[in-house]
Design goal:
The complex is a heterodimer of chains A (338) and B (363). Chain A is α/β, with parallel strands linked by helices and 338 residues long. Chain A has helices at 2-20, 24-31, 57-70, 86-91, 106-110, 153-164, 177-185, 196-205, 233-251, 259-265, 269-274, 281-284, 291-299, 302-309, and strands spanning 34-39, 47-48, 54-55, 76-81, 97-98, 114-116, 121-123, 125-130, 144-149, 169-174, 191-195, 212-214, 222-224, 227-229. In chain A, helix 3 packs across helix 9. Chain A is globular and about 60 Å long. Chain B has helices at residues 18-26, 31-57, 76-81, 83-88, 97-115, 123-139, 155-182, 186-200, 204-218, 227-253, 256-264, 269-299, 311-319, 328-357. The chains are: A alpha/beta (338), B mainly alpha (363).
Chain lengths: 338, 363
């Protein structure tokens, strides 16, 4: 009932919103600050350090977008949102862009009235087990006890996966992620399952992380992408091509450190267009010359963002995996700057 | 003549005096008592030493990073490093003197009220001026202070702001509602009854959720009521209903003779209420009122669900920092301790107030 009411009001609001907004870009320029919806706390993606400064992969997307639009990556107002209020915040205009580990799905993309830009992180549900269990693959988990968080899609995916493989399992559900972690550590279950990015964060919370392994199987598709409102194509283009610029920069080996040199010397035509040495890439989306250069200079390319926030040198220790560039066996791919 | 001074009375046997008697009478007087004593001691034994070991003996106090903690006991380094986050949330680091000044002012006023006798005459004036001063200081934007949006307020600061605004505003509103419910005017009475019963039938979490998620959808885009203001209004309206019922219970404790006496003196309705009934009614409801205010203080942590970072929510924020993962236990223990300090002080204050206002002899 509540859900239906929400959806109804969301749709009603949408109708007015679509009429009212033509220019998010103008609004952002006028305000001089980008309002970006982020998670209230997800290690590696959106978290506050001891000084209260936001950082993370999702946060860096906000910074890159601010650099593209306003020329300054620091001109972001972060609006921490929980899962329930995130779409309302976007629809009601409380934020300009939602960069909050949100899975791109058909319903959200269409009925909810939002547009997903491009995938910033390919996530998917995975499993973690103690090394002592001696399990090398999720296919060997027949009869296992599994700790999960109640009321998430995780639960449904898990049931589907085990049924598809003709295996049995016993689920123990908990309210919060912390309870799941504590129960798993206490040995109440053999397996812990959640989105892979969360698994790595969970592992670092355990007393002796080295005793646990994450199994290779990923059993669901969770492409996490930033989102903007329906009905503002120019803003959608900017948001989409900001992400593409970060990927292209990595593909071409342009980093925040060498971007000035590349701007002066690089002869690759695509790099020249990306950095506004040639062509009208920025003008096409209604921005000043050098818009993408600003993002790369101030925030770095996709690879830098990934390694800085969640990569193997951080406490999360996540491999590139699906998030490697397409040239390196991953899925991250940008259409050409042409 | 021989004198026979009476011998001093013999002391009672050892089993009937001193600590031994106390133990015998209070802890071991019956089989039930013995069982519960053993059970109680066992529970204490199982909980206290491990806690002391975790919180003090094995705990780490020195250092600046997670690496400085051995991991056997509590890592208080975490609380130390994140203290400003716990106390002030996302308030800009270089502006922290502003909330600190406000808090110092509160403490100073409290101290002055005790030692400067004439000060209480200006109480009402202070109550009117102080919120304006506090808001100016915290929010800024004038007098050369930089603007700090309310979305950056957090931690204990936010908890105190919400709790004090909630208490100060819901109190008069509650009195009005209670008077309305007692009123002989049918419209006022039924409106008050409807309001009180409706609000008490709805969980606070729903009120906050509606205020933050549903309300914005009815405004045109770009019109955004401040989130904190929405929460404050929600909490105030919610608590007012509870305060009203507390006060009403006070009205019912006042003997009918008091009303009649006030009428006989020729007092009008407002005079009767303000001079005779309310002072007595509020006095008898102090324990209930303080109970309501204590629960309001703790309810403030529900604002977490609308994305405001009160003291409790800061545990979630700080322990999700990738450099400090897995520190939530320390965070929760610390926050529980702070909550306890405040609620316990409120209880003590109410006790003192009751004593001070207890003018009835022999009670």
């Amino acid at each position: 009932m509540m859900k239906r009411l929400l959806k109804l009001s969301a749709v009603a609001a949408l109708a007015t919103v679509t009429l009212a907004t033509a220019g998010t870009l103008d609004d952002v320029k006028k305000a001089g600050v980008l309002k970006c919806g982020v998670n209230t706390g997800l290690p590696g993606f959106s978290e506050a350090d001891s000084k209260g400064t936001w950082r993370g992969l999702d946060v860096d997307y906000c910074r890159a977008l601010a650099a593209v639009v306003l020329g300054d990556a620091s001109k972001v107002k972060y609006v921490p949102l929980n899962a329930k209020e995130r779409f309302t915040a976007l629809q009601s205009g409380e934020i300009d862009v939602l960069s909050r580990n949100t899975t791109n799905t058909e319903t959200r993309d269409t009925a909810l009235g939002i547009n997903f830009t491009g995938v910033m992180y390919y996530d998917g549900q995975g499993f973690m087990v103690p090394k002592s269990l001696g399990v090398k693959s999720a296919k060997e988990l027949d009869g296992a006890t599994v700790c999960i968080q109640a009321g998430t899609t995780t639960e449904l995916n898990l049931a589907d996966y085990f049924r598809a493989n003709g295996m049995k399992f016993k689920a123990i559900t908990f309210d919060t992620n912390d309870q799941v972690t504590k129960a798993f550590e206490a040995g109440r279950c053999d397996v812990l399952t959640t989105d892979a990015s969360g698994l790595y964060a969970t592992r670092t919370k355990l007393k002796d992380p080295a005793k646990y392994v994450v199994l290779p199987e990923i059993i669901s598709k969770e492409p996490l992408a930033p989102a903007v409102r329906h009905g503002d194509d120019q803003w959608f283009d900017i948001a989409k091509w900001t992400r593409n610029a970060l990927l292209t920069a990595e593909e071409k080996g342009i980093t925040s450190a060498n971007v000035d040199e590349a701007k002066a010397k690089n002869t690759d035509p695509e790099v020249k267009r990306l950095l506004s040495v040639e062509g009208e890439m920025c003008k096409n989306v209604g921005l000043e010359k050098g818009c993408f250069y600003n993002a790369i200079k101030q925030v770095g390319n996709y690879g830098e963002i990934f390694e800085r926030n969640v990569g193997v040198k951080t406490p999360l220790k996540i491999q590139r995996g699906l998030n490697a560039l397409w040239t390196k066996g991953g899925l991250q791919y940008s259409p050409p700057f042409r | 003549m021989a004198v026979y001074p009476p011998k001093p009375a013999k002391e009672p046997p050892l089993t009937e005096r001193g600590p031994i008697a106390w133990v015998r009478h209070n802890l071991l007087s019956s089989p039930y008592n013995i069982t519960f004593t053993i059970l109680g001691l066992a529970i204490l034994y199982w909980t206290i030493p491990p806690f002391v070991k975790w919180a003090f003996l094995d705990a780490n106090f020195a250092g600046h990073t997670k690496a400085d903690c051995t991991g056997n006991g509590a890592c208080w380094v975490f609380v130390k490093e994140k203290l400003n986050m716990f106390l002030f949330g996302f308030y800009p680091q270089d502006q922290l003197w502003r909330p600190k000044t406000v808090i110092a002012t509160v403490l100073a006023l409290g101290a002055f009220a005790k030692f400067v006798p004439g000060l209480h005459r200006f109480k009402l004036l202070l109550i009117a001026i102080f919120p304006i001063f506090a808001f100016m200081m915290l929010h800024g934007g004038s007098f050369g202070l930089s603007l700090v949006e309310t979305s950056k307020w957090g931690g204990l600061l936010l908890t105190l702001v919400i709790a004090s605004v909630g208490i100060v505003l819901s109190f008069p509103l509650g009195i009005l509602l209670a008077l309305g419910r007692q009123s002989k005017l049918p419209i006022i009475k039924s409106l008050s009854v409807f309001y009180i019963e409706f609000v008490r039938g709805v969980p606070l979490i729903t009120v906050l959720f509606m205020a933050s998620v549903v309300l914005p959808l009815f405004f045109p885009e770009g019109v955004n009521f401040n989130k904190l203001a929405r929460a404050l209004i929600g909490i105030t309206l919610f608590e007012a209903a509870y305060v009203a019922e507390n006060i009403r219970s006070g009205f019912q404790a006042i003997p009918k003779g008091q009303y009649e006496a006030a009428d006989a003196l020729g007092l009008g309705y407002w005079q009767k209420m303000a001079l005779v009934i309310l002072p007595q009614a509020i006095k008898v409801t102090i324990p209930n009122l303080v109970g309501t205010f204590i629960s309001l203080f703790k309810d403030t942590s529900l604002v977490m669900i609308i994305g405001l970072f009160d003291l409790l929510a800061m545990v979630n924020v700080t322990s999700n920092d990738r450099d400090w993962l897995g520190m939530d236990t320390e965070g929760y223990v610390f926050v529980a301790f702070i909550f306890w300090i405040f609620t316990f002080s409120m209880s003590m204050y109410s006790k003192r107030l009751e004593k001070k206002l207890n003018t009835d002899k022999g009670k």
